[in-house]
Amino acid sequence: MFFLVRLLIIFFTLINYSYANNTIQEQLDLQKEVIDAQAERIDQLEVIIRELKDNLNLSKNDNKLNSSQKETNAQSSINKAEDVISSSKNKKYNPETAFFGPLPQLRSTDGKYSAGIMGLIQLESAVYNQEANYNTNNDLSDGFIVRRAGLTLAGVSEKDWIWFLSYDYADSGDNPHDGLRAAMGIYRGFKPWWLFVGLFGSSVGLDASNFSSQRQFMEAAMPQATFIYGAGSPAMGAAATYRGDDYYVRFGLYGEPYKNSSTDDEGMGLHGRIAWQPYKERLKAFHLGATGYYRSANPSNTFTNGLRDSTLRFRSKGETSVSGDFIVDTGIISDLDSYNYIGYEFAMVEGPLSLQSEWGILGVSRKTLDNPQFNGGFLQVGYMLTDDARNYNAYFAQFWRLKPKKSIMEGGIGAWEVAFRASQIDLSDKNIDGGNATSYTLGINWYMTAFTKTMINILHTESTGPLSEDFNSLGARLQIEF
Description:
- The chain is an alpha+beta fold.
- The chain has 5 helices and 23 strands.
- β1 and β2 form a beta hairpin.
């Protein structure tokens, strides 16, 4: 029945718009928008019908249920149905459709091919107040940077192939080689499986899986960013995702970070995530998962005390990037055989309130020396001060773009959010003294529109170790997507 309803919706939509006084491209865009909205409402109605059936079955089997309770259950379902029907006049925000940004896409006449350009600009500034480190005499430098300035060309071929080519023109000091962040193809013809191949992120951990533009704070949490980006992201590899009714699975085989170079065999690793999602609505979500990787040695061409070095090291500047000084650093790890990471992921959204937490342990296996273990994690909480909610996207088990109820372009004040995060990392064990650090961050986010955002982070960091710095910082970011 619902299949027939969908066909009728598409048929009448096509008739309706075929006489519109617009260009062919505008007609196609409008048709897709209407079809997406109608499909979403049909899905909601299917859920409501199932609830009505459950209520009817419950009332038959439960003799203790009085008539007033039955009426309340029925009326609740009817109210939900009326809400869906009454919303048919309003546009629904679809995060998957909005992924490609606000710019129009080019499409072939047969609809099998499309291509579009997306862009991201992040402009940052920060001032620091620090206690001097007498071992290094480092000075954390105030200033301005272009944190990211990226362009992405993406599209669809033969309907089931999605492709990405992404380049970052800002030298942010991360893993991309000459700024190339992604060159990948995705095949989605085996739904609910998606297959990935090429250069892309390893997607270990929740915070690191979120796009930088969609995080609650200016930088990823220090522990997870250190353990995950240190192992390699982006990297060449192949991966697959599977989406169940209430769970998400992703696993893949990856090589070394793309910018690493060695004449020896390349290190390899198996990476994965699994998340349970009993609630995955935009305003009510629950995410509980496990994540990790196992990687073989990535040998170097140099030696220390007769032991072969690797290209592996774990280090962090803390949760700020304007100053280029590292505050914890294991140095290059020699005598490496393999290493592994295991951690948990947790997140929830309940209206304006959101919670997120991760913790993990990284173990290093060495050929002759002792095997150290490092660890770290974070807890963060956010609260929307306006009638908005952090947008959980269950389809990719990550957070996605927030569209304010009323942006500044519509005469509103946009969406306002306050957030707090505490994080800790320990990189000292056995004969490796990388130091440890703890950070506390207060964030204020102003979502002016769905594609423009201003962020302010007030940060306090305490650390110990050879490179340790205790400091306070005030950072700000202007972010523009297009």
